[in-house]
Amino acid sequence: MATTEEEVVEFQVYNTTTRQKEVFKPKEPGKVKMYVCGVTSYDFSHIGHARAYVAFDILYRYLKYLGYDVVYVRNFTDVDDKIIKRANELGEDPRALSGRYCQEFLKDMDDLQCLQPTHQPRVTDHMEQIKEMIAKIMTNGCAYTIDGDVFFSVDSFPEYGRLSGRKLEDNRAGERVGVDSRKRNPADFALWKAAKPGEPSWESPWGPGRPGWHIECSAMSAYYLTHSFDIHGGGMDLTFPHHENEIAQSCAACRESNISYWMHNGFVNIDDEKMSKSLGNFFTIREVTRLYHPLALRYFLLGNHYRSPVNYSISQIEIASESVFYIYQTLHDSEEALSAFQQGTETTTNVRGRISPQALDCIRKLRIELETKLSDDLHTPTILNAALHEALRLMNSYLNMLKRRQQRQQQLTAVLSLTELLKEVKAILDVLGLLSSSTRAEVLQQFKERALKRAELTEEDVLHAIEERTLARKNREFAKSDQIRTDLVAKGIALMDIGTETVWRPCVRPEQEQPVAPAQLDQPAAALQQEQPAAALQQDQPAAALQQEQRAAALQQEQPAVPPQ
Predict the structure, then answer these.
(1) pLDDT tens column, 262-294
(2) Predicted structure pTM score
(3) Is the distance from CB of 302 to CB of 380 less than 8 angstroms?
């Protein structure tokens, strides 16, 4: 889908090092090498992880869309103080525990439609590379040993702080360890930790032990991408000390070490408060996707620019869920309607001129919008809220046309226009990682199943309520029938009357609940959550009024299309 504009849009990314957006120019034409810091695998991953890896998945997808040959490396930290502590608490082997949570992470990434990186190295499989890099750093006079520990000397690297902008005298020792009085400088950090009783260890020239946190990424990125590559990414919290220390030790090991672009994603807040276990507002990906479809979580995350803070709330995830349901309802209805006109769609290439000017203009704008916005430092919100929804509205208008009897030429124009719009929308969704490999009907059913779980209802409960309402309407008990519908809407279930049939679908509840603590999520949600007014949407989120329009438009498509004359 190349842009139709004469002027090619240049891809720009925000570089943390220079504090500005820069035109992306890979070191080697046509090829991109990128490294993203992965998880420390000692527990289920949280929505902060989802935010990071969805953001860099969009980068990975868009680079591939632009035609680059991309080598994407994302590591696993599978030996660490946190892993050892958790394993000891559970009486489990640290490597077995870490391996288990690596697999759980991969399942979460698969659910979120994140493409698998080219390489996913684990620290424990790269001890030789780590020890070799430490040896080079020591040979170059930038590290020292004390009692089997090896520390990097920040005083040996005058440029320390160039990424974060910190002055050396202002830096604290680190995020994961306390100050060690043996260090020459409190900011010096561990490259190798001497073995302790009961902890996993490996032999080294400095005695048995294990790597420090920072050295692993330098060693593995150099092994897979060389010392000089294009993009290094991670959460904003990794800027200091982790990435700052990576730069120092990588340059100490190899003077030619150079990374062109450092990219960092923003934080996740919960109802305008920082996500924290101590505040009881800490959510794992698995806890969210138990009640909301993973595509809804991905859509919600893409509704915010990757560098801006994300405010997670029940109201916003429900609106995101509503939006994705509308998208898939439109895709499903379009594919169902077009299947009745298969002979007409086979002639698309021969009669392209008969596609309506409105559809052609919409397709052109959608392509331009995708490339313009993603090329502007991956600005996904505008794509979701403007051009994509305009295309979906137009698709629904053609679906309505196909329900009415009309002349063959008008009918064919509607079919061809809908066919091309469907193809383009699916291509856009694929670039955004929102196109599931499941059938549209399967995805819609998955959304409905989660809506029932949130409502603490079964399908039979809803069908019984529909029967009661039908009987009440037949008996002209309209107050009762209205109350049945209102009660279901309060639980996130909307009833729609299509001809003589009543169908149901998920909807946004008029009042949202406070998120519950993760430990409570195994209990019935409705009994635990407290009601609150719906939170105001952030500027980049779809408006609630648009969602109402989408619901009505999508459900109109459930009537069968008129077959060709």
Answers:
(1) 999 999 998 888 787 667 788 999 999 999 999
(2) 0.88
(3) yes
